[in-house]
Specification:
The chain is an alpha/beta fold. It has a domain of about 170 residues: 3-Layer(aba) Sandwich (Rossmann fold). Helices cover about 40% and strands about 20% of the residues. It contains 10 helices and 9 strands. It has a 7-stranded mixed β-sheet. It has a two-stranded antiparallel sheet with strand order 7-8. The longest helix has 16 residues. The structure holds benzoic acid. The site of benzoic acid has 7 residues, from loops.
Length: about 250
C-alpha cells in the first residue's frame, strides 16, 4: 500500500504476519464473492486472500503499492499489478472491491482512495473491507512514541503511519462519496502474535525505526518490547496485540 517509509518484504511478512490474512475470513464472508464476478483486491499484499477470491470463482485483479508483494502474488499465478491506492486507474468495471488490512496505511488523504474505489465500481457494486479501527494497537503506539521521546525525538505522534478511524468518521467519508452503508462496525480483536512483539515490530514498525540511526534500532525495539510486556505478554511469554478492526460493507448508489 501507499505508506511513506514502510518497506514491505514478503518473506518477513509471511513469517511474522501470516495471521493478518488468516484472520480475513469474516470480511471475505461479508463480501460473499460469486462465480464470474470481477473483483478488485485493493492492497492485495502477497495474494493469500486474493487466491481465495479466485477459488470462489471470481475474476480478480490485485493491486498493491509494493513491487515485492506484487511479485509474491504473481508467484501464486494471480493477476497482480503495482498501483498506488491514490491513483486507481479503473472506471465502472468491477462488481466488487475487497480490501483487508490495507486502508489503515492510507493516512494522508483517505477520501481520494474512497473516490477511486467508487469510480472503479459498476453501479450497485459493493465495497467490503476491513482495516484497523479507532484504538487499534493503542498500547503499541504509545510505547513506540514514548520510546522515541526518550531518544530526544519530540512530536513523536507525527511519525505514526496509521489511520485508525472511528465508525462515525469513516461512515461520513463513505457516504460523502456516494456509498450506501449496509454494515459498519468496530470490532475489538485481541490478536495472538506467533513470533512475539519483536516479530510484529520488525514487520510493521519500520516507519518508527527508520527515524533512528541503524546502530540504535535493536536497542530501541528491545526497549519498546520491554515497556509492552506488562500489558501484552502473559505469564507464559505469549504476546497478544490490542487489535481493533473496522469492518464495513457499502454499495455504490
Ligand atoms: C495490520 O496489518 O493488521 C496492522 C498493521 C499495522 C498496525 C496495525 C495493524
Amino acid at each position: 500500500m501507499t505508506s511513506s517509509s514502510q518497506d514491505w518484504d514478503s518473506s518477513r511478512y509471511a513469517q511474522n504476519a501470516r495471521f493478518v490474512s488468516d484472520l480475513g475470513q469474516s470480511v471475505l464472508e461479508l463480501l460473499n464473492p460469486q462465480p464470474g464476478e470481477r473483483i478488485l483486491d485493493l492492497g492485495c499484499g502477497d495474494g493469500a486472500l486474493t487466491e481465495k477470491l479466485v477459488a470462489a470463482g471470481a475474476e480478480v485483479v490485485g493491486v498493491d503499492g509494493s513491487a515485492d508483494m506484487v511479485s509474491a502474488s504473481r508467484e501464486r499465478g494471480l493477476d497482480a499489478r503495482v498501483m498506488d491506492a491514490y491513483d486507481l486507474t479503473f472506471s465502472n468495471e468491477f462488481d466488487a472491491v475487497f480490501s483487508n488490512a490495507a486502508l489503515h496505511w492510507i493516512k494522508r488523504d483517505p477520501d481520494t482512495v474512497i473516490q477511486g474505489v467508487y469510480r472503479a465500481l459498476k453501479p450497485s457494486g459493493r465495497f467490503a473491507a476491513e482495516m484497523g479501527g479507532h484504538g487499534c494497537v493503542a498500547a503499541i503506539v504509545v510505547a513506540l512514541c514514548a520510546t522515541l521521546e526518550t531518544r530526544g525525538i519530540s512530536q513523536s505522534a507525527s511519525f505514526i503511519p496509521w489511520y485508525f478511524p472511528t465508525v462515525d468518521d469513516y461512515r461520513l467519508r463513505l457516504e460523502r462519496v456516494g456509498f450506501r452503508v449496509e454494515y459498519i462496525a468496530l470490532i475489538p480483536r485481541p490478536t495472538p502474535l506467533p513470533t512475539g512483539m519483536r516479530g510484529w515490530l520488525e514487520t510493521f514498525a519500520i516507519p518508527f525505526t527508520n527515524i533512528l540511526p541503524e546502530s540504535g534500532r535493536g536497542a530501541f525495539l528491545d526497549e519498546v518490547t520491554q515497556r509492552l510486556g506488562p500489558a501484552l505478554c502473559d505469564e507464559r511469554g505469549r504476546w497478544t496485540a490490542d487489535y481493533v478492526r473496522l469492518r464495513f460493507l457499502v454499495e455504490k448508489k
